[in-house]
## 1
Amino acid sequence: MTQLISHPSGPLSGAVQVPGDKSISHRALMIAGVAVGESRIEGLLEAADVLATADAMRALGATVERDATVERGGVWRVQGRGVGGLVEPGAVLDMGNSGTAARLLMGLLAAHPFTSFLAGDASLSARPMERVMAPLERMGAGFVARSGGRLPITVVGAEAPVPISYEVPMASAQVKSAVLLAGLNAPGMTRVVEPRATRDHTESMLRHFGVEVAVESGAGGGRKITLTGEPEITGRDVDVPGDISSAAFPLVAALLVPGSRVTLRGVGVNPLRTGLLETLREMGADIALDNRRDAGGEPVADVTASASVLKGVDVPAERAPSMIDEYPVLAVAAALAAGTTRMRGIAELRVKESDRLSAVARGLRACGVDVEEGADSLSVYGRGEAPAGGAEVAVQLDHRIAMAFLVLGAAARQAVRVDDGAPIATSFPGFRDMMNGLGAGVEEAGA
């Protein structure tokens, strides 16, 4: 365990490039792995979660190599096996801490006629997988798992996968994506109906690789996605944009520390991922998007955040899918806002790397912030001033809890300590150096 301390900061300033988008990085490796020929991926997130996906695709027969050093981590080349061409792995596939990697990979594995085994760390092994297993079983796959559908899991792939039409009971991009990836190797049309639109990186990436994917809008903000199976897909170049979920941390820090102004270059601003920006603007945040452009089918912009006086707002439940990973740092922003911020429809936070809802509530209380936690809600009673801080927060192996409270430490009256900063490497290697380069004071305890 690596304890980190974040000290109250002076103004933050500078222009930086955040790491590549984690969600897109996972999908780029997997889809390139079932394409024919070589794909070149630039800007791939070189963090533990994504490297676990790279290792898994190698074990399944794809060639995955880091090629050359460029500004953003490197260029990766993937020589794919073609749709239906993955091979039986010779060992257990260890997905580390990555729920996205595990769930999406289950979709690919479910449609290949061999048996494979998935495992993960303590945090991943506590997370539910039944929501993914249920539709994949209808497509012909079989699973053996611990109670509650928890890892380690044996995946018995379908000899002849069948397409299905599946109505997802909850808003989940991971369930949707697992079904669509399984549908690649099933004849005919695979359909997924989601109650509310979730991040559409899988649909965009599949289209980028030449797969026929149709999307229809439905009632109540839902969508029907139809994929034509057994396509002939070929390798493509992919440019991974900066991760808005990672950008959220320096962005919120700039809003909260007086006198700050920070620009985050090349951030993905897919409208199904920008709920945090919308919410912060409603709170009074000074956020500008410049240099808008397209990168491999994904909208990208430079995002500039300037110190702002924030007010509490009600965050509608239907916005949750567009910002589900950003609620911890939004709660930190709410702690300094004037008035109450109410977040509803966020029960999904309880089945992330930790029970994020409870972890955020406990951490804020320890730092002197009044909060009220509900089964699927969180109310933060901000006072329009810096909270006391001065606490140690247990992050429970959760990278986003660790980074959120390090941001709070920069804006609090007293330093905030997190009990373990090591999980940050799963999504944002170099986070501490980047924050300190902007003017923050994050250091290892005892250093």
## 2
Amino acid sequence: MLTSKRYDVTVRKLIDLIFNMTPDERGLLLTEAEQIRTKLRATRRNCILSIVLYYGDKVYPATITNLSFTGAFVECYIPLRIGDQVSVEFKNAPGSEIILNAHIVHASSLGIGIRFCTVPSRAARFLQKILDDNRHGVYER
């Protein structure tokens, strides 16, 4: 009986949390839950996006060639280490610039794989548009 009561409280808290989310945040939550349930990676799309990469106190022009809600592959030819923090600025975002913080999860001579720390709802809409536009071809910005 005690376990059932604790479960009811947890479910109520979860429902309250979901009700306070924006529709975009709910969509991201649903996508993540589906991926956890099916143990699939985030949908990735090949693309060509010019960005600005901030690493420490330096700024580098770079290109994203593979994108998902959770991260990206960034073509760059600078020495970076796994675990380091970076910021990615999407200059051509609709309305204004979008900057996402990320950490490096993969590094090679061709570039880095990054995982976004958080994706605010405005950035989520931008990423969703790129993913939708890129279902059948390469999206260039």
